[in-house]
User: Fold these one by one.
Assistant:
Number 1:
Amino acid sequence: MLVPALMVLGLALIPDGPVWLTLTVSGLAMGMMIFVMASGMTLVFGLMDVINFGHGVFISVGAFVGVSVLLLLGDMTGAPSLLMALGAVMLAVVAAMLATGLLGWAFERVIVKPVYGAHLKQILVTMGGLIVVEQLIIVIWGPEEIYIPRPEALKGAVTFAGAAMEKYRLLAVAFGAVIFIAMRLVLRRTKLGLIVRAGVENGEMVEALGYRLRVVFIGVFVAGSALAGLGGVMWGLYQEVITAHMGQQIMILIFIVVIIGGLGSVEGCFIGALLVGLLQNYVAFLEPKAALVSNIALMVAILMWRPMGMIPVVKAK
Amino acid sequence: MTSDAILTLEGVFTDIAQYHILNGVDLSVPRGAVTMLLGRNGVGKTTTLRTIMGHWRARAGRVVLDGVEITRTPTPAIARMGVGYVPESMGIFADLTVEENMILAAASGPLDPARLDRIFATFPPLRTFWKGQAGTLSGGQKQMLSIARAMAEERRLYLIDEPTKGLAPAIVATMAGALKALKADGASILMVEQNFAVARALGDHAAVMDQGRVIWNGAMAELAGDAALQARLMGLNLQPGHLAGPVSEGRCPSRSPGYLETREDAEDKAGHEQRAHPCAPDRAAAICGPHRATGASVAGACADGAGAGADP
């Protein structure tokens, strides 16, 4: 109910309907992209109690790999056909997910595995891993930021009820919604999802029932890394510029989303991401200077209301 | 006893951080029988079960399941060898429904409908709350779910840690009835139990622990029939006036047989323990007689030569 409540509050404060609609779509798009990037991190923390400060690097790598593919597919991105544009974006997404999934597997084996159960070491080591991979990005793609134009068919806006809504943001909303529904289906309707949800709550008992949670965790880590890579492509196209540090910069928002959502909760992460996206857009319109602190204020308010986040799954451990 | 043992522990030492918890446990669990692991608080009973299950690694010694050494075997592999585990904390997944908990418990495939029907017959509330979130169940229902999960598949061995701990008297009887049904099916069970009335009613064999090792091993009947032995091994005060005759004689004690702790232990814990002291009249009644509130027979724990048995 918090998301609709925030939207209604936004409407009350921004009485101009078309402006409110534009801001709402923009906020939802931003929230969906943050959710895609953050969902893997919250599951990794919930499942194996691992704080991965290096999660942002998968966002950066995903963006660079995806953009490289898009640059190679200049003919497709330059065509006015929406189908061709979506095809190019999908190819970029697949390449980014494969690359970041593979990187995630190596990251878990080399960096995370030796520091299970040691939070301080996890923070230090994963931050070290982030720095190393960021430097590798600079070695491969150079230190300059790369401007990446959206495919021709995804440029511009559609007008609805007098409100201009960017096509790409609508696509991001649809994409994020599909991923959330797919994740929910996997988590709620499959045995693998049950194992993951149960593992977030009580990993030891899941193992006592005969499931190799470590293997499941590696799978979740790889999937979470791949989702971050996917989010990186989406975020890169949203910002139309990518840098090696983009993942690190957005990690603040991701942490806020994961914390207010409740550690280990995909649903909480989804709601938190939408709240962050909407609030940032509304406040940026109403009082631009306050936009910088609006999400911190949101986090403080929610933690005062619910200290373990909105849907605290990990508290049961 | 070791000739047809399903599980043996040979000189098992387990440390938790800097603490030496198990100091050379030698234990043999006979096939198709119920072995009670007894002893006062903090002597290593739960650690023994967790070491068998692989949650904590033995520093030295051997754990052998049906001729296969499992000392270093990972927990999931031990579970897949047919060991069902009911932890002291119950370990239910509160965020999942009862149904989802049971689906997870059937690790090797879908739930067997016939087996599920038997579980429902034993624990009717689980059918009632099948689609409900497990976290909303009462303490007794959570314990039912925990035991039902262990029963979801064919097991070679059940490790059950204090199944009656903290439960209402009527629920204790239900639990005892369920465990009796498991026993009647020929299951091999190693069970930690603080309630000596329940232990006496269910156990075929007993192993008493103290200071991280097994100090006595033998038939439950021998232990149950020897008050001096109980007092020596476990500090139970069985003097006349403190306890009436054993439950196995069909009489209800004027005071319950007691948890396996000294009176000093109990006094130390007063105010920290939420569970009803077994000497409380309603608890004794639940174990050995009609329920005060309902008048219904809740004598499951005392059946089979252990009191006013309601079961055949």
Number 2:
Amino acid sequence: MNQSKTDTKEMNIRVGLFVSCIVDVLYPQVGLAAARLLADQGVEVVFPENQTCCGQPTFNAGHQKESYTLAANFLDIFAPLLERRDISAIVIPSGSCAAMIKHSYATLIEKYPSEKQARQYAIVSENTYEFSEYLVDILGVELSPRDSLYERLTYHPCCHLMRDLQIDRQPRQLLEAITNNNLLPLTEAETCCGFGGLFSLWNDEISVEMGLRKAKHLKASGADLVVVNDVGCMTHLNGILIKQGHTCRAVHIAELLEESETK
Amino acid sequence: MTINIDAPYKSRIREALSDSGTRKAVDRAMGELAQRRERAVNAIDNETMRTESHEIREHAIRNLPGLLVELETNLTRNGCEVHWARTGNEANDILKTIARTRKIKTAIKSKSMVTEEIHLNTSLEEIGVKVVETDLGEYILQLADEPPSHIVAPVIHKGAEDISELLQNELGMEPTLDPSIMCDAARKELRKHFLSADMGISGCNFAIAETGTICIITNEGNGRMVSSLPPVYVVIAGIEKVVPRVEDAILLWQAATRNATGQDASVYFSMTSGPKKPNHADGPKEVHVILVDNARTNVIKKGYADALMCIRCGACMDVCPVYREIGGHAYGKTAYPGPIGSILTPLMNENINIGKDLPFASSLCGACKDACPVKIDLPKLLLELRNDLSKEKITSPFQRFLVKCFAWISKKPSRYKKATKIAGLTRKFSKESTQVFSKLPGPLNRWTRSRALQKPSNKTFKETWKDSKADFQVLKSPPSQK
């Protein structure tokens, strides 16, 4: 990835990376790919090592008090870095975690008011970006269409990314480039895959039926890779695809972009 | 096959998911409905309509007491009799008194969700009044003795074959799958009731405060006949139905119709401002309006006033991927399925246990929020309800325990680090040579019985980062151009 509108390499940009708990435990390669791609753009990646979970699982499970504690931790870790201008942004390879931090933290701050956290939240929410959004909107990365590297690639817009953060153009732009504008269409692409965090366990039967519907459309699309921006949805989709004996696999956008560099 | 709406949540879901016939009917109908809706809302400036509709409904709910008094004053001035009912039972008692004193034998009804909510039919039948549903879908359900499964398309769970068979058995119709013939068979039967009924009953889409006018949206003309043919017309209206001005009702009519059925406008929009006047050709001699609270003020008190902005268009269920899989009956004994129902049912039931699982029956995908014509933030309300239910310890103890464990672990980086290490060890215990677990014990089997699960990585990201940090420091300086 070597084309960027602004010459970020001269600007000494430093960002804080939040990888999310699922990437930390299940998919370290996704976090590494995101870090490498950012570094490729001349961005220095800072990884605060005391980060844990943003609080999304507990928040969605209906435990706002517990989520508040986790949110407070997150704010204590990242807000001072932004305030001291040690970093200019927080970059997250997950749409749902970014949405949690940017939007749902507001609910928590409202419920447990504290001046300090309100201030921390203000600077954090303003400077938190989902990974593909940061690449395209902030770094101005523009990939020119290359000879078809991937012929059978499709895209599933994850719900929180598309609806909560309204990010859709950015990942598609990157993917259209590496498919030479041949990203395969996906029927009912905007329908939820059925993951939904703990929903996938408490309501596993419904979750699986939704996943099977997505798998059916994936099969019909002819794609052998479906790109997502959230490892939760990726885990669920791959779980279904493997169990169903489909050959199509879900892949995180950072991992795919990194791989496309070497292709 | 109809699922048992009184069964516990999990068995309702299982029953619904295993009923392939119903699922096919729901899936096909929802797909078509969603497409029609999409066309109708894209034909206009939907965002402006949503914003204005939201403002109208928000204003109304925030100013209910004043608007309701204004409504009562103007309805009374128009010659209507206004009754107030705190509960569904009170509303039914008022209606029964009206029916008894006027020796009512048959009542014809247009489709109304509030009457489903308060079980009006059963109550009237107790005193020997025959109630005939006149909306085609509701009529079919009455013949089949089934509850509606969708607030706009009540019979959406039935295929044409089921309906044909029912009409053959109940009305002696010749075998056919032609909808117009089926419609005719029902119409012939219904016509008798239209002409002989001594009471008409309807719900209310909008009650206009400034003029004292009741509005109902229908497509089959049955609503017009219910409100104008019988000598007594009774309106059952939830107190949240009030809107300040005529223009408000007109805009909301459009918002409701485009979203409910994908029409630019419904075939009928019936406005009743009181009984027949001496110079009128026809109309009811008496008009009664029963304004029902039935836990609506509780919904406000509990902090969920936004849910009362709902104009019952059904768009949230039409776009809901969960509703699409399970259909309306899986939501249990409630008039309101789908996302809005998952909020209203537990809040409006005295026994919160009845709907306690519903707020969790959502992947929080947000499709409902995007579709809602009055901009109700449904996922946010669902999350608030989840929080209330956990706080009141109504959720399962095991669920609360797991979530609290997760939070306790994640609260402290050192604890979290140990836990992620332990998670990594599970990889070593697995006999499977693949990258995934295909079978896990205990609650995790809920995942693996239908899905493989990615194994934890040998090393966490944190560990990997420590090892590879050197690489990244090199990358601090601009890399050479490739």
